[in-house]
From TrEMBL:
Chain coiled-coil ranges: none
InterPro entries registered for this protein in UniProt: DsrEFH-like, Se_metab_YedF, TusA-like, TusA-like_sf
Database matches in SUPFAM superfamilies: DsrEFH-like, SirA-like
Pfam family, one: TusA
Protein name (database record): Selenium metabolism protein YedF
Gene3D superfamilies according to UniProt: TusA-like domain
Limits of the UPF0033 domain: 2-67
Species of origin: Geotalea uraniireducens
Amino acid sequence: MKIIDCRNMACPAPVVTTKRGLEEAGGEPLQVLVDPGAPRENVNRFAVNRGFSVSETPIDGGFALTITPAGAPAVSPVPVPERAGKRAMLIASDRLGDGPEELGRLLMKNFIITLLDLAELPDRMFFLNRGVMLTTEGSEVLEALEKLGNRGVEVLSCGVCLDFFQRKELLRAGTVTNMFTTAEGLLGAGLVIGL
């Protein structure tokens, strides 16, 4: 049985690492070492929601989760509803939520990086207002945005916003867009996700 150690990993790394481990295990049991609290709960919930059974064994300072198929195919895909039109994402800030700034930035970074591990991606990502800080020099998600672009996601940053923050020359991911293209893209999308 393969063992993967997810201790001392920040969210969402334990779930993402477990997902990859299950894919590589090809239906064989997998043991995942996790910290108590959210990592234990998140990995357990992830596995159960995909049809696996999970048994827990306390270990020094954490848990060993043994994940075994329970008659379901390994890592069954999450059903995606049919949609008409493209899927657009509107990102209007460099952080997620209204809590502490540091937490909001961490959540946004984790969200964008986690997109790389999903089967379904947005067709277009529109960055407006402080969201353009994510597509310009110094952003911690430039590599993730580049990889998303390589997978067909169109990364578009508001030109007015880049000018306002004096960042147009610092754009490092995607291309500059305008409000007409943004409005047309959002109104013509089959699904719009706003962050």
